[in-house]
Amino acid sequence: MKRRSFIKSSGFLAAGVGIGRFSTVAGPFAVSEFLNGVAPFDKKISRKWIQSLYERGTVTTYAKSKNEIRFIGMPVGGICCGCLYLGGDGRIWLWDIFNANQLGAVNKVLPIKLETFNVKEINNVFGSLYLEPAFNVRPLQQGFALAIKHKDTYMVKRLHEDDWDEIIFQATYPVATITYIDKKVPLEISMKAFSPFIPGDEMNSGLPATIQSISLKNLSGDQITVDVIGWLENRILLNTAKQNNAFVRVNKSLESPYCNGVVIDCTYHDKDLEKAPDFGNMTFACFGKEATSIIDAAKSSDPITQMIKNYISFSDNAPVSVLTASHILKPMQKEAVEFVISWYTPNVSFFSHGPNQSMTVEGADFHYYTNHFDSSESVTNYIGKNYHTLKQQTMLWMDTWYDSTLPWWFLERTFMNISTLSTTVSHRFKSGRFYAWEGVGCCHGTCTHVYQYAQAMSRIFPNLERDTRERVDLGIGFDDETGMIRIRGEKTGPSIDGQAGTVLRIYREYLMSKDGMILKNNWGKIKKAVTFIMKQDKNNDGMEDTPMENTLDALWSGEISWIVGLCIAGVLTGQIMAEEMNDTEFASICKNYVEKGRKNMEQYLFNGEYFIHRPDPAIGKKEIGSYNTCHIDQVYGQSWAWQVGLGRVIDKEKTMSALKALWKYNYMPDVGPYIKEHPGGRFYALAGEGGMVMNTNPRNDEKPYGEAKAWQIGYFNECMSGFEYQVAAHMMAEGMIDESLVLTKTIHDRYHAYKRNPFNEIECSDHYSRAMTSYGVFINACGFTYNGPKGHLGFSPKITPENFKVPFTCAEGWGTFSQLRNENSFEAQIKIKYGKLTVSKLFFELDKKQKAAKVEVTHNDKIIATNFIQKDTTCEIDFPDLVSINSDQILSLTIR
């Protein structure tokens, strides 16, 4: 939406609101319904539309004919290796692999004044790419074309949106499938684009490369000759060339046992160039031996190369390489041509410029992949040598993830935000340290108060999270004297929500480990970190009340429900970990704190409908705070508890009341009228779009956020997806399934490709890391509980439990869980697809009418358990010995 259109429409509300693009799903509303400082209580959402959210549906496809492919930018490089965008038509764009360290995926500034934040223009922090999404950013030339000979007809068709009647993009991260359709072309043509992505294998998922596999099938009754032609321009030292051009870009042929191609490099005499951020090389290759290569298309007389010269602009010191693979296809014959683009730009360059230029970061020298490779050529050869396995395991994960009874759209939206790891938000240094911005180029240091929301990486790459807890939070960023965990690693102070959330993450990483060594090796520091939380309770009532920075970027005074509850949950994990370590004295201290805090929070911070912020009596409301408003994170501690199997932390009745208040007051099918009356927030949801606003003022307080004129007040009028997912996950766990799905689908539709990039959820710059909270919605939809060291695994599905199938990950592998249940029986299967699962106890939720009498569990055709315990609807099965389920093995059980 252009900014002029936004300004024009922001004050208007249509008769009906289309949360989805093509149907009216809510309303009609009158503007007067938004004038009480909150959302309309009756959301007027179509019941038929809500029911549709539960349907399995089909894969989300975006079509050229519907103007839906322009903004697509799916990250298709390895994790922590930079960022390449796959466009909707299959071309690569953005090319953020040169360590530019810029603000935003594409740095864009718009001239819109925001008084709340005291700025005259907005940049990526304020949502410039939400207002005007980026597209067609191509600092170098790359593409593919097909030269097709059929009978007496000869044609050249680029894999480019201009050359096809229709292009269909399937948004199945980590693998996209693009189909090209033209009634004049008697071929079935598609592309699968990806980088190796294997949960639990961060090394092979972190290769600086992207693969484009082009499939061709002859649909005619005649022979067809197809030349698949690819090209790539040499723009090594892309940015450095503006200041220092004392080098010559050169291409050279590559022939290896695995592929043919071109190495894209440069020659130079100035050794300082080796230190440049964009120094390095690239390789463009085709797997197999059938491809021919041209190192400089401008100088070539090759007939096939001549066919595409009109599609390329030639310039000095930027040679364009060309690869061609030729196939003669018989009727109905199918062939695939597989290309790889790899890069080797080794120099991490965070603080070469920008606001943090004086800051040093331990280990920020070279990218992690330099431990395994010394050039892009070695990357390509490694992939070529291992290609069958890398591709097979990547496709196996994609198939496993989407082979589910859960709705397609739900699986897509809750998983695709892990693509943040394949952008320049995320880095891994040569030392192995994971390091990330909050959003692209904005807010350094793997910030604890942001990353403690994100649930995806721990479940998909648990080794990375576990290493970060030990290397950074309990290492570089740990103050051994006080137990403080620094907010951003080096040379920073604490944040209270970051501290509590990180203690919870330590427990999560313990659960996602095979042996629990993170706890055994670090108990002394973990104990200090928990103690630090309890010491922030000045009046000894179990409720944190020390002013300290939080994720809303201010020091809040008083007793704040969302912080108090988060601290209670954090200390509860301290109790559990102490019990595991047989530290009974500390476990008792934690238990007393939790019981006291829970009692006082429920008594003093609950206003009869929702939880609030009680001001410090010595200060009152002179400072910023949420006070009597309805705040999005008010029961966040309980939300976190469901992610790690803590059970009930805050009274159920009061928790449910709080969640219902958030739905009643903060969720809006259209935020337009509200943001018109409450201007100044950043642009993460626009008129005509739905969302859950961070804070509303149901009691109509005159100064709801205190007396201070703080710039952070602008946050309260915004819709930030990371916070919204936290609420959606919590609602899912508590049985508010309709509301959870509506809220999640609302975000999904805000990022429909017709409007903006579906893979770039924006909050304080692009690809914001908090959005990885979306995986938590999936976890709770499965009712997934897991304790790796003890071998406990459980499922309590919230959607179609009578016929349910989902993927799951564990400490050493991943696979599929499925169940069928009714009032008479329960049947389930656990099938491991990769690695292994070790279990000693299983938990399942039976139909409320079933009274189990017999259980039979089989593994490798042997009965391994017949004993169980039923507590209400929960069935608990203990195994006499640990059971290891290896890849391609199945554990089956029947309860009758």
Q: What can you tell me about this protein's structure?
A:
With 896 residues, the protein is an alpha+beta fold. β20 and β21 form a beta hairpin. The strands form 9 sheets. Strands 28, 29, 30, 31, 32, 33, 34, 35, 36 and 37 form a 10-stranded mixed sheet that branches. The chain has a 9-stranded antiparallel sheet with strand order 1-7-8-9-10-17-14-13-12, covered by helices on one side. α7 crosses α19, α11 packs parallel to α13 and α15 packs across α18. Helices cover 25% and strands 24% of the residues. The chain contains 20 helices and 37 strands.
Question: What descriptive keywords fit this protein?
Answer:
single chain; 896 residues; alpha+beta; ten-stranded mixed beta sheet; nine-stranded antiparallel beta sheet; 20 helices; 37 strands; 25% helix; 24% strand; globular; disordered N terminus
Write a brief structural summary.
25% of the residues lie in helices and 24% in strands. It is α+β, with helices and mostly antiparallel strands.
> Could you tell me the radius of gyration in angstroms?
28 Å
Q: The biggest beta sheet, please?
A: 10 strands, mixed
Q: Termini separation (Å)? A: 57 Å
What's the helix count?
20
- What is the overall shape? globular
Question: Could you give the count of β-strands?
Answer: 37
* Low-confidence sequence ranges: 1-16, 352-358
Share of β-strand residues: 15-25%
Helix content: 10-25%
Q: Could you report the average pLDDT, rounded to the nearest whole number?
A: 94
Q: Strand pairing plus helix content: what structural class?
A: alpha+beta
